[in-house]
Amino acid sequence: MLKKRIPGLVGVFVLLLGAVAGISLLRNRQEIREKAAASASIWLSAPPSVVAGEPFDINIEVDPGSNLVVGLELEMSFDPRYLSISGISLGTFLPGQVDIVRNEIDNNAGTISYVIWINPTSRGYASARGTAATIHATAVSPVASTSVDIGPGSLIASYDDPGNNVLQTASGLVISIVSPTPTLLPTATPTVTPTSLPTPTYTTTPTLTPTPTISLTPTPTCQVSAPVFNTAKITPDDNTLFSSKTSSVQTSVSVSSFGSCGASKRLEFWMYPQDDPSMQLKVCEYMSALENVDYECDLFIPRPLNQRKFVWKAIAYNESGSTSIERSIRIAYEGDCDLSGRVDIVDYGIFFDSFAKVDFDERADINSDGVVNVVDYSYLFYNFGKAI
Questions:
Q1: Residue 228: which domain range?
Q2: pTM for this structure?
Q3: Number of domains in the chain
Q4: Would residue 371 count as lying in a domain?
Q5: Residues 140, 230: one domain?
Q6: What is the 3-state secondary structure (H, E, C) of the chain?
């Protein structure tokens, strides 16, 4: 099928005008959520001096500052020559149902990977200082000083600033290990069983099959009539749901009959937010349009995205009037991994199954930064239960 696109400079001008004007006309009706600056801090606390051979605790303390914390992803390191870690107990910093997503201790490499977050079904957040977890350690041998460090890959997710790491400062600790007294007590080593979650299944959105093209036979005598769109050539279909990552949507129509008797025929594409039809913007225009030709127009989705529903309209003109068609476009909430129209427990399953994996489901990388981590989870948590 012959394809037509906006010519040269006219196309560039129209697209730029559409993007800029689209943002301006939509902002009047948007609710802009103010984001709090990253202000959370985390530090480790323990006795400054411990006895070799004896157990002691290291607390993971968190001060959310002005943020509303929903999850932590911590990478820590220690010297296994002097310390041995037996387990980690969940603290009370995060409220509600807390999922222990990762609880990995390697006493050979001297590393700890610990990830916790508030389950999305438990709507809450931490806004006050508290203990996120307690590390159960044992001093192995005497040394003047040894450290437990928080790695640069550590992250804190918040409800008030989804998609960003709000961790501002992180501080480890330094302790000394002294020689034991002659009488030593045996060390009991508790065992902590990590919590695991089942992996749910999910379904994908079916693909619609277009209906056959209908050809119209012109009448022998020219008589002006209303333009007719080829319904099989209108894309996307009405009420189509797109990913939250969508930046532009390609629309396409074909006019099977302009109903004209030789006068100029014109085709226009418009868009507007569904809740405000008065704010219409012309995005593309084709002068001297032809019948049975696919005409395309890229509709740019304005950012920041607070509107979720848009309408695109195609208008075909002849010498006596016009005919228009309208279709809706829906933009999913961040975290709607399966594009069901709702952020729910199925999306949580998709995300959880890909968390921290090298080979992951691209749908779980909600902010498209190439990794699936607690920052992506903050989007899912923030939008959990929302539907479009």
A1: 203-331
A2: 0.73
A3: 2
A4: no
A5: no
A6: CCEECCCHHHHHHHHHHHHHHHHHHHHCCCCCCCCCCCCEEEEEECCCEEECCCEEEEEEEEECCCCCEEEEEEEEEECCCCEEEEEEEECCCCCCCEEEEEEEEECCCCEEEEEEEECCCCCCCECCCEEEEEEEEEECCCEEEEEEEECCCCEEEECCCCCCCCEEEEECEEEEEECCCCCCCCCCCCCCCCCCCCCCCCCCCCCCCCCCCCCCCCCCCCCCCCCEECHHHCECCCCEEECCCCCEEEEEECEEECCCCCCCCEEEEEEEECCCCCCCEEEEEEECCCCCCEEEEEEECCCCCCCCEEEEEEEEECCCCEEEEEEEEEECCCCCCCCCCECCHHHHHHHHHHCCCCCCCHHHCCCCCCCCCHHHHHHHHHHCCCEC
Mean pLDDT by 10 residues, the chain (388 residues): 43 40 38 65 97 97 97 97 98 96 96 96 94 98 97 94 94 96 63 54 52 56 89 96 95 95 90 92 95 96 89 95 96 96 95 95 95 96 95
**Assigned domain for 136 exists:** yes
Q: End of a domain among 331, 348, 366?
A: 331
